[in-house]
């Protein structure tokens, strides 16, 4: 223990020495006006400047660009045809009710969040008639959107589950490996995307999951895979389920697009429900960022489907021990909006309509982009644009092409070639098509 | 086939399950289950493997079976127990949430006004940057240090919006774990119950410095200085900016100077938890004086802030972590690393509470109204503190000195009751409090002071 601590201190010192550039030491020596009275260097001197988050950093770069034709296809936030953020009408309605309700207060909500929010969220993803719910085998805790739900689930597994490896798709959302690693799990990948077909590498997936150690955790995207937009078919899902169950692997679903992918809440939940129907256990992280447009409110839920009600209740008690030292209890506002909408028939119905409109606009953008590339005669098969599903398209463009598109056409997207269809409009599709065409034909 | 079905249809016997070894439990139980669902017979099933499979079905046990029931949170669990109690005289002095004289939760008028303004302006709900709402970060740092403070003017403060006090402390703990590996955090004995959990979960080692002196029901100042001095150089010293939780005992201004001296001497890093700015004395500036003292000495320091109490925004989870660095460049780098820690925890913080704070602090009319409401809340607590003291003195004829109740400050009072006595408070008197003898005066009405005085006197003298 002592030796390890000493090693760490030496390592820190070494990093400190590495990090000290000529610039740093000049600052120290010259006692510039921006430094404090103390003549000693900052204790934080060994901290390097971290690069911007690769995904959220795209927006940072976009904001800095003065070009009028700039296009932000980075982060997956829905935009209207006019390119504006959207707050759903039903959300505004719910918020108005909440703010004007004088019986409401801002007392701490329970560590596990709002009870009605939790129940309604479980019903939404698992189905109102789910036997797992009826048998009280599901514990659901409100968390900070998808990220928070994944992190709490991962921390729980790292403490209480015998297998500490999680398998994530290759590729996957950029934040996944960090979430799991910081929770203390080791991360491996399984083949998923096939660049040759721009579709699913199903054989590779089966092989890799087939050779995973028994009990390993497997991260599955419930629908609208991020970043590729490539989802297994129902038949493929069934095979995946059988394989996972036969190897005793533990499925951990990331459901960030329920209702957003196909336009149907039930259809987008099918893979999750298929797994729950076989009586087995699984984890599900839900996010309301996209499907209710509640991005900044950080609303989500973690559900753990257990074998018995007794296990579920013990699991819940342990989830509280993860949450309390992280942020004590979750924020009330977003969850209240969700609960208000889900429990009211007409608001729920209104929501499904607005959700469908968003999904359909995206589907139409896919079609328009595909048509635009076809009409330009852009070389290559671009059918994956209309085959892929959800907010994102994995264009197949490489990082050089992406950099070219950013520089020459002011298109902002992640370097893996992912574009957010939600950021496109009929007006801007031609500009994007021109950019892709140029990137592909100029042999970048 | 019939034989297999009959085994499966019987409910797995828990006793039988536990009597089988772990080895057998792992055998393809799920495999059999899924195949049965389809009504198929496993094609690989030889008579030998079938018997293995049928045994494992009977042990179709959860992979979480060995998880034990965690105990309820010692603080938040108190409210849960209180809710379950049906006694008419029950009193909740557990969690530190402000109550009116009618013992009702209180939403500040300025908060309601801010929320209405926000509704009218119809802002969007886009993701905040990882570091939070820019307007909030600016407002919160200025509130803490004073807008004209040199640390602000010189841009030496890295401010990141956090999930109230807890979330801000956790971000700081994660920063310490990553960039100061092996460094210890010194925490007061006693301290808020969740501090230890935060550092444990963040894998930051901690040790305690003496703080509370049960003999005087006051500050063990010599013990505190001695323990801070004895700690390894470069330790982080967790200090409560004002209104120490749970004791309510704060150092005097002179003592703060000596604390700063010894921290500087040992190259320790001060780490303030400021959850009650404005709530303790009623004055925002006065309650920030300890933090400002340290900053004025050119020290680098960390400060976690919370708006749960002073703006009554408990459930909105709004706070901030501030790191005062010796240079603007260091502050930029520190901020970038805090972001790197927040992203895999929750990506970016919630917008609602941050906008409320920014609206209140940024609007001179609302800001002044807030100061008035805060004075009112702090004033009510001071007055029940006085009334409780008066009631106890009137009933206790032994001449015991209860004046420590008046000297303590903030939401809480350390009664000096031990665990058994605190249990008596709950079991006999239906007064809910934490086992360390802490009562939340915020949950006390002047109407109930007499009852509480009776309970305290009974517990103190009749229970050991």
TrEMBL record, chain A:
Residues 24-43 are annotated as: Disordered. One of its GO terms (cellular component) is mitochondrion. It comes from Daucus carota subsp. sativus (Carrot). One of its GO terms (biological process) is amino acid metabolic process. Residues 30-42 have a biased composition (Low complexity). This is Aspartate aminotransferase. Its EC number is 2.6.1.1. Its cofactor is pyridoxal 5'-phosphate. Keywords: Aminotransferase, Pyridoxal phosphate, Transferase. In eukaryotes there are cytoplasmic, mitochondrial and chloroplastic isozymes. Belongs to the class-I pyridoxal-phosphate-dependent aminotransferase family. GO terms for molecular function: L-aspartate:2-oxoglutarate aminotransferase activity; pyridoxal phosphate binding. Residues 69-436 form the Aminotransferase class I/classII large domain. Homodimer. It catalyses: L-aspartate + 2-oxoglutarate = oxaloacetate + L-glutamate. It holds the Pfam family Aminotran_1_2. Gene3D superfamilies: Aspartate Aminotransferase, domain 1, Type I PLP-dependent aspartate aminotransferase-like (Major domain).
Automatic annotation (TrEMBL), chain B:
PROSITE patterns: AA_TRANSFER_CLASS_1. This is Aspartate aminotransferase. Its EC number is 2.6.1.1. PANTHER family: ASPARTATE AMINOTRANSFERASE, ASPARTATE AMINOTRANSFERASE, CYTOPLASMIC. The keyword Transferase applies. Keywords: Aminotransferase, Pyridoxal phosphate, Transferase. In eukaryotes there are cytoplasmic, mitochondrial and chloroplastic isozymes. Its cofactor is pyridoxal 5'-phosphate. GO terms for biological process: amino acid metabolic process. Homodimer. GO terms for molecular function: L-aspartate:2-oxoglutarate aminotransferase activity; pyridoxal phosphate binding. InterPro entries: Aminotransferase_I/II_large (IPR004839), Asp_trans (IPR000796), NHTrfase_class1_PyrdxlP-BS (IPR004838), PyrdxlP-dep_Trfase (IPR015424), PyrdxlP-dep_Trfase_major (IPR015421), PyrdxlP-dep_Trfase_small (IPR015422). It comes from Daucus carota subsp. sativus (Carrot). Belongs to the class-I pyridoxal-phosphate-dependent aminotransferase family. Residues 89-456 form the Aminotransferase class I/classII large domain. It catalyses: L-aspartate + 2-oxoglutarate = oxaloacetate + L-glutamate.
């Amino acid at each position: 223990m002592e030796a390890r601590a000493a090693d760490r201190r030496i390592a820190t010192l070494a990093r400190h020495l590495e990090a000290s550039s000529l610039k740093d030491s000049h600052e120290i020596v010259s006692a510039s006006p921006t430094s404090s009275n103390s003549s000693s260097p900052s204790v934080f001197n060994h901290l390097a400047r971290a690069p911007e988050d690769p995904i959220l950093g795209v927006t940072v770069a976009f904001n800095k660009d003065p070009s009028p034709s700039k296009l932000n296809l980075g982060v997956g936030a829905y935009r209207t045809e006019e390119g504006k953020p959207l707050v759903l009408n039903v959300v505004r309605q719910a918020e108005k009710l909440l703010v004007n309700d004088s019986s409401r207060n801002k007392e701490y909500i329970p560590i596990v969040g709002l009870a009605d929010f939790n129940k309604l969220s479980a019903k939404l993803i698992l189905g109102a008639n789910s036997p797992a719910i009826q048998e009280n085998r599901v514990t659901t805790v409100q968390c900070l959107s998808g990220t928070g739900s994944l992190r709490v689930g991962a921390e729980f597994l790292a403490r209480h589950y015998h297998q500490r490896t999680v398998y994530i798709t290759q590729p996957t959302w950029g934040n996944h490996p960090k979430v799991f690693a910081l929770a203390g799990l080791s991360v491996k990948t399984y083949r998923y995307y096939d660049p040759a077909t721009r579709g699913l590498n199903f054989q590779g997936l089966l092989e890799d999951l087939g050779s995973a150690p028994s009990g390993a955790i497997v991260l599955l995207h419930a629908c609208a895979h991020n970043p590729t937009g490539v989802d297994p078919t129902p038949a493929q899902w069934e095979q995946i389920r059988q394989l996972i169950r036969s190897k005793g692997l533990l499925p951990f679903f990331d459901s960030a697009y329920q209702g957003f992918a196909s336009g149907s809440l039930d259809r987008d939940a099918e893979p999750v429900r298929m797994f729950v129907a076989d009586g087995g256990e699984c984890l599900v992280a839900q996010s309301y960022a996209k499907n209710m447009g509640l991005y900044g409110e950080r609303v989500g839920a973690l559900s753990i489907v257990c074998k018995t009600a007794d296990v579920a209740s013990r699991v819940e008690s342990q989830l509280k021990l993860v949450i309390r030292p992280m942020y004590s209890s979750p924020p009330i506002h977003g969850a209240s909006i969700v609960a208000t909408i889900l429990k009211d028939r007409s608001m729920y119905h209104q929501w499904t309509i607005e959700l469908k409109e968003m999904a359909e606009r995206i589907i139409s953008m896919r079609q328009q982009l595909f048509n635009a590339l076809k009409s330009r005669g852009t070389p290559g098969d671009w059918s994956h644009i209309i085959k892929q599903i959800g907010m994102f398209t994995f264009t197949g463009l490489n990082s050089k092409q992406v950099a070219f598109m950013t520089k020459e056409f002011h298109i902002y997207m992640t370097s893996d070639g992912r574009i957010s269809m939600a950021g496109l409009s009929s007006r801007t599709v031609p500009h994007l098509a021109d950019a892709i065409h140029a990137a592909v034909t100029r042999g970048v | 086939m019939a034989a297999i079905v009959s085994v499966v249809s019987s409910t797995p016997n828990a006793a039988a399950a536990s009597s089988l070894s772990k080895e057998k439990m792992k055998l393809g139980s799920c495999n059999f289950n899924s195949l049965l669902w389809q009504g198929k017979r496993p094609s690989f099933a030889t008579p030998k493997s079938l018997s293995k499979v049928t045994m494992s079905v009977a042990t179709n046990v959860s992979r979480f079976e060995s998880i034990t029931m965690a105990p309820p949170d010692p603080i938040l669990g108190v409210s849960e127990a209180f809710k379950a109690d049906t006694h008419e005289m029950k009193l909740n002095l557990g969690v530190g949430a402000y109550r009116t004289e009618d013992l009702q939760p209180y939403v500040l008028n300025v908060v309601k006004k801010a929320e209405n303004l926000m509704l009218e302006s119809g802002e969007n709900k886009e993701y905040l940057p990882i570091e939070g709402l820019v307007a909030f970060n600016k407002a919160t740092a200025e509130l803490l240090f004073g807008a004209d403070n040199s640390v602000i003017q010189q841009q030496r403060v890295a401010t990141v919006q956090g999930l109230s006090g807890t979330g801000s402390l956790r971000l700081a703990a994660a920063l310490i774990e990553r960039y100061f590996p092996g460094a210890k955090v010194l925490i007061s004995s006693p301290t808020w119950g969740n501090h230890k959990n935060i550092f444990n979960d963040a894998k930051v080692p901690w040790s305690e410095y003496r703080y509370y002196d049960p003999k005087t029901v006051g500050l063990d100042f010599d013990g505190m200085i001695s323990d801070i001095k004895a700690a390894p150089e470069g330790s982080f010293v967790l200090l409560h900016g004002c209104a120490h939780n749970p004791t309510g005992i704060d150092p005097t201004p002179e003592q703060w100077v000596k604390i700063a001296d010894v921290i500087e001497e040992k190259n320790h890093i001060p780490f303030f938890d400021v959850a009650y700015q404005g709530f303790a004395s009623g004055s925002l500036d006065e309650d920030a004086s300890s933090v400002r003292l340290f900053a004025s000495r050119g020290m680098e320091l960390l400060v976690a802030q919370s708006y749960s109490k002073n703006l009554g925004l408990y459930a909105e989870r709004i706070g901030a972590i501030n790191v005062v660095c010796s240079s603007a460049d260091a502050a930029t780098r520190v901020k970038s690393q805090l972001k790197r820690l927040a992203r895999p925890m929750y990506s970016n913080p919630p917008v609602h509470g941050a906008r409320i704070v920014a609206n209140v602090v940024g609007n001179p009319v609302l800001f002044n109204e807030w100061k008035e409401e805060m004075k009112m809340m702090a004033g009510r607590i001071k007055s029940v503190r006085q009334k409780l003291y008066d009631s106890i003195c009137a009933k206790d004829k032994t001449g015991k000195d209860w004046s420590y109740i008046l000297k303590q400050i903030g939401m809480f009072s350390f009664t000096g009751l031990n665990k058994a006595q605190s249990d008596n408070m709950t079991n006999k008197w239906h007064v809910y409090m934490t086992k360390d003898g802490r009562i939340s005066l915020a949950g006390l009405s002047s109407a109930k002071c007499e009852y509480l005085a009776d309970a305290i006197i009974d517990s103190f003298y009749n229970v050991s």
